[in-house]
Here is the input.
Amino acid sequence: MGAENSHELGTIEVAVGPMFADKTGWLGIKVAKHLHFKNPALIVTHILEAKRAGVKTLKSRNGLLLPCENASSADEIYNLMLARKIFDRTSKPRTLAIDEMQFFDTKLALLAVEAQRNGIRVFAAGLDQYFNEEFCPTSAAMMAVATSIEKLASGCDVCGLDSATRTQMLIDGQPAPYNSPKVAVGDKNPLKNSKVTYGARCLNHHIVPGKPNFK
Ligand SMILES: [Zn+2]
Here is the structure.
């Protein structure tokens, strides 16, 4: 699948933000009009998300439900794209939508560029930071190759202002310390015996005990 300059390029549109910023709703709006054309389209979310939303369902907090595929790696998404003929240039538009991109390996950015070279419109959404403000490597890689980026915010649980850019993690009701597990879902969840909840917070109200600051 080599690049040929005469071909029309696709795009890579990325949206990032904390939990509760309705990133999945953004993805659904972007992809819905392409589904209307009945042309090749693939919506993928990570298999870890199947626990919350159900297998092969993309579910946003604003009520959107779309059928999707579940995958656990960039290679698996590539194989799904081949099976759906997403690389077949005889039809367009061809669309790839990826939710929860932070759960995938960083090879996802290479796949997105390969798709762009092949004229595919790529939409991807996910967390930009974990609860402790460490950045999510795959989302960072996707932002690096993106043709456009939207930063989404939520409402802060504490002050209510629409500027929550951070995810607040609570373990048994208390702010999660800096070194807590970053991914607390799935069968290997080390916090499965604790009650883990999340919220969205502005920078003023985001609490991470033990987090190193610049000074
Ligand atoms: Zn606040």
Notes: The first helix runs from residue 23 to 35. Helices lie at 23-35, 50-53, 74-83, 107-117, 137-145. Residues 44 and 69 are 5 Å apart (CA to CA).
